[in-house]
Amino acid sequence: PPTATAEPPTATTEPPTSTPAPITATFTVTPIEPSGETDASTEIEAALAAGDPVHGQELFSQLRAEVGFACSTCHNVDNPVRLIGPSLQNISEVAALRVEGMGPVDYIHESIVNPNAHIAPAGEGEPPYPENLMPQVYDELFSDQEISDIIAYLLTL
Q1: What is the pLDDT of residue 41?
Q2: pTM above threshold 0.90
Q3: 27/31 Cα distance (integer angstroms)
């Protein structure tokens, strides 16, 4: 019996008739009022464009052997209840008000890479957060892109 021989694909010089639709994020961020000198909504849009919130959520929930837990072990994201660290629900709004002249993205970034720089105030009736409660090594454990991804995720909360 004759055997079929595959023919190589032929190249075409004609451009495609349509362009693929751009991929859009499934997360939305509620615009917030600018804080101090920073245009917070522009800062948030830029951070969302620079990071991948889906990957950031994975990183946030992933156990890090170097510290023995995940970010989600210590931080609630869907309610205001304090676990070990402060809740991160609505963090873009909270962070915009935390340090005068510092926008929410810069505040969140600083809180990850240098957690003792601005220790969050405790809620009413709660004990204060001590220094060094959060590991001081995330700037070494995560790449700049991974930190951008985590920030993008947190901005969607």
Answers
A1: 87
A2: no
A3: 13
